[in-house]
Amino acid sequence: MQYRFMRVLVFFDLPTVSSADLREYRRFRKFLIRDGYLMLQESVYCKLALNHSVVDALRDRLARNKPRRGLVQILVVTERQFHKMDVLVGQVQSDVIDDDSRLVVL
Asked: Scanning 12, 65, 86, 92, which has the fewest C-beta atoms within 10 Å of its C-beta?
């Protein structure tokens, strides 16, 4: 079996006007963290996936846990495309290992 590592990027813009909106925002954000997504920026999270079938499963889990209101978008890129990303301002967090070196295949 050949693995083609991919990244699933989740972009979201959720309303935070009422207390119900804030509750929904916190629930969705906690879901992303519990599911293994890493925060790239505020409201931008990513997760490493092994192949297309894992990406499809992640899409299904996101669809089941999506908030009722707001905007949630998913972008799937290959690992090579993800590593070509340039940081123009700021620093990349180096204390988090977010590549395939921490991957364990059983």
From this structure: 86
Torsion angle in degrees (nearest 10) through CA of 45, 50, 53, 56: 0
Q: How far apart are CA 73 and CA 58, in angstroms?
A: 13
Residue 60: how many other CB atoms lie within 10 Å: 10
User: Which strands make up the sheet holding 44-49, listed edge to edge?
Assistant: 38-41, 44-49, 6-13, 71-78
Contact 82, 100 (CB under 8 A): no
Question: Could you give the CA distance from residue 76 to residue 52 in angstroms, rounded to a whole number?
Answer: 10
Largest Cα span, the chain: 49
Counting runs of H as helices and runs of E as strands, what totals does the chain give?
A: 3, 4
Q: Which two tokens stand for residue 66?
A: 């999506």
pLDDT digits (tens, 9 = 90+) for 74-97: 999 998 898 888 888 877 666 555
